[in-house]
Fold Phenylethanolamine N-methyltransferase.
Amino acid sequence: MEKNGKDSGVLAMAACYQGFDPAAYLQYNYTPPRADFGRTDSIVPWKLACLHRAFTEGDVSGELLVDIGSGPTLYQVLSGCEVFKKVLLTDFLEVNRQELRRWLQDEGGCNMDWTPYLQHVCKLEGRRASEWTEKAAKLRQVITDVLPVDVHRPLPMASGALPSAGADCLVSCFCLESVSPDLATFTKALGHIGRLLRPGGHLLLIGALGESYYFGGPGVKIPVVPLNEEQVCASLKESGFTLIRLEVYTLPQDMRVGVDDVTGVFFVKAKKD
Ligand SMILES: C[S@@+](CC[C@H](N)C(=O)[O-])C[C@H]1O[C@@H](n2cnc3c(N)ncnc32)[C@H](O)[C@@H]1O
Ligand SMILES: O=S(=O)(c1ccc2c(c1)CN[C@@H](CF)C2)N1CCSCC1
C-alpha cells in the first residue's frame, strides 16, 4: 500500500531501524562466542575466505568499490581494499556511519576491535598476521567516505556520489533481506543497487537464509524476509545479474542463539549484464 509514494512496509521497516544499536549488533554477531576464529566450522573464516577468493581470483578489477548497507562493520572490504583504489562505505543510519568514521579516524571510542579480522585476512593473503597494522592503514587510506544510502530508492545514493559510469564493484552483506518487508521488495532493492554498478561490474552479496527476524539491539526485533537459494538466484536473474558462483554455509546448531533465527548464509558472486 503506497503512502506519499512510499510502501507502508518500507516505512514500517525504517521505523524499526530507529532503535538499531551498533554496539549491541556488533556484540551479537561479531564477537565471541558467536564469531569465533578458533572453530574450524566457524562462519567468520568462511565469510572472509569467500570474499578473499572473490576479490583476488583475477576477474574483479577497477577503481571504485562500494559497500551497500555497511552497518557498523568493515570486514566486508578487508580483501577489497587491496584491489581498489577507492572504497566507499554506506549506511541508512547516521549512528552506523558515525561508528565507521570513529574507526577510520583512529581516535578511540570504537565499539569493535577488528584486529582478529585484519590478522585473519593478512594470513589469507600470505602475509604475517603482524602485518595487520599495515592493512589497517591501507583501509584508512582507500576508504574515502561513509555516505547515506537507501536501497528502496530507485537511486539509492545521492546524485554525484558515484561516477556517471557507476561503481566497478559492489559488496553488500546482510542488508537487502533485513530491510525488505517481502521478496518483491528485496528483488526491487537488488535492482536499485544494480543501477549503481557499471555493466560488467561485479556484485558480491552475502545474506541470511531462512531468517525471519533478528535483534538489532536490546528489545529491537527487526523482521527479515526469509530467503532460500532458489529465491536468491531468481531475484538476481530478474534484477539483471548473471550468477557466477553461489556458496552456502549451514549454521551449526550451537550457533543458533536467540539474536536471530538464521539457518544458513549464502555468498553470491555475480556480474551485471
Ligand atoms: C543486518 S545490518 C548489516 C550490517 C553489515 N553489512 C553486516 O554485514 O553485518 C543491515 C543494515 O542495513 C541498514 N539499512 C536499514 N535500512 C536500509 C535501507 N533502506 N537502505 C540501506 N541500508 C539500510 C541498517 O542501518 C543496517 O546497518
Ligand atoms: O556472520 S554471521 O553469519 C551473521 C552476521 C550478521 C548477521 C547474521 C549472521 C544474521 N542476522 C543478520 C541480520 F540481518 C545479521 N554469524 C552468524 C553465526 S555467529 C557469527 C555471526
User: Anything to note?
Assistant: The first strand starts at residue 2 and ends at 3. Residues 43-56 form the longest helix (14 residues). The chain has one domain: 8-151+180-272.
